[in-house]
From TrEMBL:
GO terms for molecular function: DNA binding. InterPro entries: Competence_ComEA_HhH, Endo/Exo/Phosphatase_dom_1, Hlx-hairpin-Hlx_DNA-bd_motif, RuvA_2-like. Keywords: DNA-binding. This is ComEA family DNA-binding protein. Residues 27-46, 57-76 form the Helix-hairpin-helix DNA-binding motif class domain. The keyword Membrane does not apply. Signal peptide: none annotated. It comes from the Bacteria. SMART domains: HhH1 (SM00278).
Length: 80
């Protein structure tokens, strides 16, 4: 019983996966806080037209994505 509780508690506190904004698909990008389907599609379209992002802050170049959205997701995004 203790082992079962330990496993459950471990999953409850698991950190969300880090997302590479240069390789993530629309569904993965849409899982970010404040990024829905349409903004995720805009990210991929921008990336396809302009090349890879140099940093997650470059997402502010995508229409509809501001500094607050980037800041909310800063720990979950990389642009490697």
């Amino acid at each position: 019983m203790v082992l079962l509780f330990s496993l459950f508690a471990g999953f409850a506190h698991a950190e969300p996966a880090v997302i590479n904004i240069n390789t993530a698909d629309i569904e993965t990008l849409a899982s970010l806080n404040g990024i829905g389907q349409s903004k995720a599609e805009a990210i991929v379209a921008y990336r396809d037209a302009n090349g890879p992002f140099e940093s997650s802050n470059d997402l502010t170049n995508v229409k509809g994505i501001g500094e607050r959205t980037v800041a909310k997701n800063a720990e979950r995004m990389v642009a490697k």
